[in-house]
Design a protein that fits this description.
about 150 residues; alpha/beta; 5-stranded parallel β-sheet; 5 helices; 5 strands; binds 1,3,4-trihydroxy-5-OXO-cyclohexanecarboxylic acid
């Protein structure tokens, strides 16, 4: 059984009522329970954490390393396009992660087209709403299984 972490950046606590045309109607609680169920079905345990604070997300990544977390499903939200410090935290702990986005940032404003995470992620899933998270988790599990 592996320990997994779903990590959510700023404003994702407002899912369900935040710009539904971009992010859909699913709440973060619904997404977290869907992920926990999917992980359990595969015999793993998934914890979740959301924060608007960059330092809190960084500290959660550090704690994940000491907890032996095997993989992270990460939606950095607005920090996708700004955060060298979060990128460095993931590189420091070397925990494999999948980058997920509800919307497809490539089809939106130009400033969303650059991610500080895509080139160091196992993979990226974007544009499928809440389903991006589930597909991201399945991709992460497949990566962990093949990495042994
Ligand atoms: C997002 C896309 C980001 O550009 C945006 O800042 C978000 C959410 C997504 O899930 O589609 O907050 O990561």
């Amino acid at each position: 059984m592996a320990q997994l972490l779903a990590l959510h950046g700023p404003n994702l606590d407002l899912l369900g009522r935040r710009e539904p045309e971009h992010y859909g109607r699913a709440t973060l609680a619904a997404i977290d329970s869907l992920l926990a169920e999917e992980a359990l079905r595969a015999g793993h345990r998934l914890m979740s954490f959301q924060s608007a604070a960059e330092h809190a997300l960084i500290e959660r990544i550090h704690v994940a390393a000491s907890e032996g977390v095997a993989g992270i499903v990460f939606n950095p939200a607005g920090y996708t396009h700004t955060s060298v410090a979060l990128r460095d935290a993931l590189l420091a702990v070397a925990i494999p992660f999948v980058e997920v986005h509800l919307s497809n940032p490539q089809s939106r404003e130009a400033f969303r087209r650059h991610s500080y995470f895509s080139d160091i992620a196992v993979g990226t899933v974007a544009g499928f709403g809440a389903e991006s998270y589930r597909l991201g988790l399945l991709g992460l599990l497949s990566h962990l299984a093949s990495a042994g």
